[in-house]
Amino acid sequence: MPNLPVHVDFEAFVNDKGKRVSNDLTAELQDRVRHAADASLPLRLEGNGTKSGLGRAVDGEILSLSGHSGILNYQPKELVVTARCGTPLCEIEAALAEQGQMLPFEPPHFADASDEGRSTLGATLGGTIACGLSGPARPYAGSARDLVLGTRVLTGRAEVLRFGGEVMKNVAGYDISRLMTGAFGTLGVLLDISVKVLPIPTTGRTLVQTCSPAEAIARMTGWAAKPLPISATCFDGEQLWVRLSGNHGGVSAAAERIGDEAVDDGEALAFWREQIREQRHPFFAGDAPLWRLSVPPTVAPLPLPGAQLIEWGGAQRWLRSDAEAEVIRSAVSAVGGHATLFRGGDRRSEVFHPLPAGLMTLHREMKRAFDPNGILNPGRLYATL
Amino acid sequence: MSLIQPTRIDFEDPELSATRAELVRELRAFLPSDAVLEQQEQVQPYECDGLSAYRQLPLLVVLPRTVEEVQRILRLCHTRDVPVVARGAGTGLSGGALPRGDGVLLSLARFTRILDLDPVARTARVEPGVRNLAISEAAAPHGLYYAPDPSSQIACTIGGNVAENSGGVHCLKYGLTVHNVLAVKLVTIEGELIELGSGGLDAPGYDLLALFIGSEGMLGVTVEVTVKLLPVPERAQAILAAYDDVEKAGQAVGDIIAAGIIPAGLEMMDGPAIQAAEDFVHAGYPTDAAAILICEIDGTSQEVSEEVMRVRDLLLVSGATEVRTSRDDAERLMFWKGRKAAFPAVGRISPDYYCMDGTIPRRALPEVLRRTAEMSREYGLRVANVFHAGDGNMHPLILFDANKPGELERTEELGGRILELCVEVGGTITGEHGVGIEKINQMCVQFSPEELGQFHAVKAAFDPKGLLNPGKGVPTPRRCSEYRQLPDHTHRHPH
Prior knowledge:
Largest interface: A-B, 89 and 98 residues
Helix content of chain A: 25-40%
Distance between the termini of chain A: 47 Å
Oligomer: heterodimer
Order of helices and strands of chain A: EEHEEEEHEHHHEEHEEEHEEHEHEEEHEH
Largest sheet of chain B: 8 strands, antiparallel
Largest sheet of chain A: 8 strands, antiparallel
Number of helices of chain B: 17
Number of strands of chain A: 19
Strand content of chain A: 15-25%
Number of helices of chain A: 11
Structural class of chain B: alpha+beta
Shape of chain A: globular
Strand content of chain B: 15-25%
């Protein structure tokens, strides 16, 4: 494998009319936010629009971030990549793959989720981190938040601030970068982001077993308590899928211990990447509201109306259901989890799980600390933020 | 006097003595008498933490046993505008638990219960005063352990680990505290109990759990922690490689990573550290080496066999003068013995030593070591280097004698310059020990006034009166403008 550090800096490129265009939009974005702050005009942050259906519906002028793009620094030996927020994940993943590396949290691209033909590029790094989305590997390799090392942020005060950095261990100051992850752009515009990357495992194998939902949960939790190189698990309603990743010896030995049928590599890739990560499995088709239930992994199958698909070793459960939000939320709260109306349903209602009063007060204070005029994606996360 | 030490406050100060008497009376109304310490000889043991160069007697010490007691103590302090410094085992190395002469020292030492250990969900719910190692010991019968392993793990508490976002030698593969804690219950300065995180892998709303971890006791007081437990690896094997040149050793670290291998631990020691460790514990280190690497691989038996062979080959190609592979666990532990004893070993060869904690991009290692050596000569102070090479976290140990006039001050200045060098090459002033009181000046170098202003705004969202651990972690704008005016401290790392 080539070991050269890769510096890619697209300070300027030539557009289709032969004119040089900078794609460092920091100054323009800062101006837009400053004007919006002065006039108290809400802004709706947008990358490639692949996640416009997530979170609550927001009114406001669009602040387009897709033009602020490009990989700024990629050092394979340092296990870190830094890119501007508008950089498509596909561009970053291609650069990493050339060096045998990957984004460990396996974020979704949702390339067919947006309209207006921007879809082909799929999700941007900024949108991915702002929404805090992670894919099938999350319980085993860490979440988006776990892997974020640093950010350059444009706050609601129009200040450009840098937190964290490009090193693995850094405890200077509060961890603002991880606070920004999953904040849905309500605390700041993520201008540049540094994330930890990891080597692509040399061997992967996916096994499939037929069992009941309860048995699937029992098996997933049982495996997790053993030192096995598991990198993804999913029960799709009928079958339990488990992916092993690592070196050849480790994967082969683990496959023998777990047993059952191995699927071929093409089918495995299609399942984990297309059907689960990108949500193209028939389970995700149709118009019924899609709920994401985050629960302790050992919780027995929840007796809620509608179909369920179980991921993340039991810790993430997808539910297609027309049941009342209250019914779903109270069932999930009762087992120590939380429920998000992930897609569909009423996007003007609270789509995220309600917070206890004391915690909500802290959230409002936090919002005020970063965006005192309430101009950044107001209401995207909760109506009052 | 030291550059950083805040003005000491006299324990006998009449005004403070009056405040003390009043507070003691109010605290005793709801706390048992043994939970309030007010005599000088009683509070003396709390005058410093692991950074013993800084000392201050607290106004008084409280040792509550219940969450309700913590809530009432904080409510009282909030009402009366009394600063509060929380403390676990006091092993911190940045003075984060240095008391305030005008404030209450809140010890969580009596919160020592493991409340719940669920081997199926692989979680442990513990009180903040539970020792780091005690969690792994309790989990061991189930084949599980708690991954972060700071070198103080025998003594340090999980509450302190949360405050500092503690690391250890296995961070590269298993992460820091923030990657291994699922939930925290905290009490705000207003006495409100708040739960962050959830029983699942994430929680709704802002990730205040990530914000809280590593906040050095400035946002709230931890009263309960739920940690993630991992299965104990089936096997671990260590490789020890010697080099006649520090730069070659640094290069080899990059080679291992570039080959797609993430070791469980990847440590480096330089000549002076090797010599001190070998003299102390006789681990069999090659004392003529300029540097050694200790690389540990863990996983299933087959995984380990395969990776160890690859690492061994890589190290031989990288120019190691000698490569040893541990044949059994006894030998593996022997390889580690010198590394783990490196700090006390250095303590044997010098009256005092000062442990630094910067992180740098690994590629800058040769430059940082070279310039550190130059500064070491310039200041006439020896420096031994111990390095979490895998994740770029370095611990230069400055050897000095506090009894020699001016030597502590020179040591602090040299330490400060080493940290500023870390920032200059794209790193940070603290990898795992925290800012505390120790690195408060270097915060002015790493962050702009606007960034520091944002930190203060975050602090104010939790603690508007600024009563929790005041004076630590984030410097005031005034402190920074004074520091920036000092000669040689005018460089800010360019953005």
